[in-house]
Amino acid sequence: MISVIEARDTILAQVSLLGTERVDLFSALDRVLSEDVYATRNQPPWDNSAMDGFAVRAADTLSASQSQPVIFKIIEDLPAGYRAKNKVEAGQAIHIMTGAPVPEGADTILRSEITERLDHRHIQLSQPMAPGTDLRKVGEDILDGALLLPVGTLIRPAEIGLLASTNRSVISVYRKPRVAILSTGDEIVDVDDEMEDGKIVDSNGYALSALVMDTGAEVVRLGICPDTQEALEQKLREGLSFDVIITSGGVSVGEYDFVKLALDALGTTMEFWKVAMTPGRPLAFGMIQDTLAFGLPGNPVASMVTFELFTRPALLKMQGYSNLYRRTVRAILLEDINKVLGRKQFIRMQLQQRGDAIYASRTGAQGSGILRSMSLADGLAITHEDQIHLKAGDEIEVMLLGGFSDLANNRNC
Ligand code: AMP
Ligand code: MG
After folding, report:
1. Which ligand places an atom closest to the C-alpha of 200?
2. Rounded Cα distance, 354 and 332, in Å
3. Measured in whole angstroms, how far is the alpha carbon of residue 261 from the centre of its chain?
4. What separation in Å is there between the alpha carbon of 91 and the centre of ligand 1?
5. pLDDT interval class at 403 (50, 70, 90)
6. What is the model's pTM?
7. Which domains are assigned to the chain?
8. How far is residue 200 CA from its own chain's centroid?
9. Sign of the four-CA dihedral 258, 185, 275, 337
């Protein structure tokens, strides 16, 4: 048997970045930048007002007090988007709007609230002001020529804004993997097919497709393949135009488990592992020509958990992500749990936040066919191979599953 970490590291060592493509700004959301982006100008481009108010010379305000206010004459109204026509001289003010360039001569802004209007051309001020008050300095956000976003940056809404601010409407990002999903088994039928006796619906094909989409990759379902080596080899060949093929089922050592044979017949570097984990265990991984192949187990929970541990990090690495793993939290166990010695068990957990602490309890029965346990789960407790008894009150590590935003309200949004 191979450990989870060994299997994962062996897989990731064989995964390389995909190529790059140029996309428009909106298509760049949640993608990874594949070029360094430099600032093309200062931001702000010039000193500008941070407030609606009056641009004046700070020196003129120094003698201002409650008993002896200073009076300014308003010489111009300046909206954002325009330069002042006049220079601010002693005793003068320009009525300025937020974002407008600070006029020549002025070095401070009096926000409207601290001034008193005497008439439509005069204001008075009852306090001294430091130079630079309520003024945004040229380049305080971004300096011209600075490295703004390095290669490898994940593009979130803030980065979309930054790219737009440097006039970049097209941007180079790493390509999305194209992933083919193949479900196997004589008993498997598609979601709208007639349900004859003995058949079950291809829930794996859909759950795995959704997991692939959740990584940002593109997915195509190759459908359902019966348990014969010829049919499987033919379907796998169809998958060779994709970056990744994921199969589910047929990787055990049963009489009808032909996926191993078919993968082996086509693949040059296939590895067939018994991974020391629950749920999961049988797993195939390797390259078929230039296509990465994952043979995941058929049991619905096992296929999702092995995807989470092995396939998801690979798909993220191909897209340029450096953070490949789900976030984990420390939680306090609410019940005693016995586990199998020698296996890393991933226990489906519900989490509750109480004060500063997070508490974890099982979702119920943990069979690898019980798909509802994944639906109920906020995360997977990560146990160690050498543990047997976990006790109520123990601190455990829980890997959060996707879509998790608020501990208290995961399923009640
Ligand atoms: P296998 O690994 O092919 O022996 O399958 C193990 C279990 O998972 C069996 O009970 C299968 O019926 C079930 N299974 C296999 N493929 C799927 C699928 N695509 N959707 C739902 N269940 C499946
Ligand atoms: Mg099967």
Report:
1. 1
2. 11
3. 37
4. 84
5. low
6. 0.89
7. 4-17+176-318 (3.40.980.10), 28-43+141-174 (3.90.105.10), 48-136 (2.170.190.11), 328-400 (2.40.340.10)
8. 34
9. negative
